[in-house]
Specification:
Elements: H1 2-8, E1 20-24, H2 28-37, E2 44-48, H3 54-65, E3 72-74, E4 79-81, H4 84-99, E5 103-108, E6 119-126, E7 130-137, H5 142-151, E8 154-163, H6 165-175, H7 177-188, E9 191-193, E10 196-198, H8 201-206, H9 212-217, E11 223-228, E12 232-234, H10 238-244, E13 253-255, E14 258-261, E15 267-270, E16 275-278, E17 283-287, E18 292-296, H11 303-312, E19 323-326, E20 329-336, E21 340-347, E22 355-357, E23 361-369, E24 372-376, E25 379-383, E26 388-391, E27 397-400, E28 407-415, E29 424-427
Helix pairs in contact: 3-6, 3-7, 6-7
Length: about 425
């Protein structure tokens, strides 16, 4: 969905410049790889060490873009748009209103009484196709949602915005000065690491966490809503993927190795294992390397409550994936015990890990695909499939893929302490200061 969002506003379309990407620092290598995979080079990837919702994110982007004073289009990365041509037409209409100083949001003409979306009440007409914003409304109950659909002047809140950076910053200064000051400080104290700009943590921690809607749009006198029909869906739950997915004759949407028997209207996804669904209906079943989810489709959004319970119990599944992306590739933690850990590493072509050593663990590397250029102490060697080497603790080492094909190997770690912070980097082409 990130790639689809970026491609909807790809720079080869004359209406768009390269994007700014704002994300949590934990996702930076995954996002950089996704963008590289579709040939999009962003103006910057801005890293948030702590999440602060959409108002600070938009403010940071506006501060960066103010010198160019182009119109900013702000899009979440997890939306689905079916009709790209209608989306681009809406952008043109929104740009006209934005150039006049209005803060524009896109309203989706509702097709049914949805209780999972916020709504916007359209007021007086503005320009050729826009309207003043009469009211923002939080997610309604089913009775109110049916009434909004019947009245006809209520739209789903898409969470997509357009504005002139200077106009937006003037509104932030008026209605949310603490956010503006926090974002200015976060940018002033930012550090650059190769392709990333890391916002200063202390400033962001002091910055209020608030969405654009409540911080700015609900207070602004310059808001405008532009109705659009573009096959939009906020893919905020697994149930939404069922809604937009290709269904079989029984109404099931499946992905991966899935067999259904007498099951109807289910969303079933398997990443690795075979899933058999027999005689069930209206379920979401998702199997990943990290966990398995089984939920009533109408309650799929309640997964956030489970995540809250996992956080309260300090469960690692709420924070860490088994598969971890790095600038050189990724590693997948496939087995671990008290004193050992087994990983599969994939090193992308022409990439290499940092020159480093560990104080508390020994590592064994076994190449299974490709060719590895290995440095262990003063010894440099080339390893092919079914060849291996051992890296004792305290010895500096480096792993490199010198070829144009991926390198895959199995790494077995053994020691009394196996956490990622037992990495002392001596040299790193990615300019990372710490283990992450």
């Amino acid at each position: 969905m990130l790639q689809e969002t970026a491609l909807r506003a790809a720079p080869e379309n004359e209406n768009f410049l390269p994007p700014y990407i704002i994300c949590n620092e934990e996702h930076r290598f995954l996002i950089a790889g996704q963008l590289q995979g579709i040939g999009i080079a962003p103006q910057a990837i801005l890293l948030e060490p702590i999440g602060r919702n959409t108002a600070p994110a938009a403010t940071v982007a506006a501060l960066l873009a103010r010198g160019q004073d182009e119109i900013l289009l702000v899009m979440p990365a997890d939306h689905h748009v079916e009709d790209i041509e209608a989306f681009h037409s809406a952008i043109v209409g929104g740009a006209t209103l934005a150039s006049e100083g209005h803060l524009v949001t896109f309203g989706i003409a509702p097709s049914h009484p949805e209780t999972g979306y916020g709504y916007i009440k359209a007021g007086d007409a503005m320009g050729e196709s826009g309207f003043q914003i009469a009211e923002f409304i939080e997610k309604p109950d089913i009775t109110r949602a049916k009434a909004y659909l019947h009245e006809g002047n209520y739209l789903w809140n898409s969470g997509i915005f357009m504005f002139n950076p200077s106009s937006f910053l003037a509104e932030v200064e008026m209605y949310a000065p603490e956010i503006l000051n926090g974002c200015r400080e976060a940018l002033a104290g930012a550090t650059t690491e190769t392709d990333f700009v890391r916002l200063e943590r202390g400033a962001l921690e002091r910055c209020p966490s608030e969405p654009i809607d409540t911080a700015i749009m609900e207070r602004s006198k310059n808001g405008a809503v532009l109705p659009v029909e573009m096959g939009w869906s906020d893919v905020g739950s697994w149930a939404a993927l069922w809604e937009i997915g290709e269904k079989d004759a029984a109404g099931n949407v499946t992905s991966g190795d899935v067999v259904t028997e007498g099951s109807t209207n289910c969303y079933v996804r398997g990443d690795r294992k075979l899933i058999s669904a027999i005689g069930v209906k209206d379920l979401v079943v998702v199997e990943t390397d990290d966990a398995i989810l089984i939920a009533d489709r109408d309650r799929a959004q309640d997964v956030k409550d489970i995540v809250g319970r996992l956080n309260d119990s300090a469960r690692s599944e709420a924070v860490h994936h088994r598969k971890v992306h790095r600038p050189w590739g990724w590693y997948d933690r496939i087995e671990e015990g008290e004193h050992f850990q087994v990983k599969v590493l994939l090193v992308q072509p022409r990439q290499k890990l940092s020159l480093q050593y560990h104080n508390h663990r020994t590592e064994h590397w076994i190449v299974v695909e490709g060719e590895a250029h290995v440095t262990v102490g003063d010894e440099v060697q080339t390893l092919g499939p079914n060849q291996s080497t051992t890296v004792p603790n305290g010895v500096q080492h480096r792993l490199e893929n010198p070829t144009d094909a991926p390198l895959k190997l199995v790494e077995i770690q053994y020691g009394n302490y196996l956490s990622e912070d037992d990495i002392v980097r001596l040299e790193d082409i990615y300019e990372r200061g710490g283990p992450v």
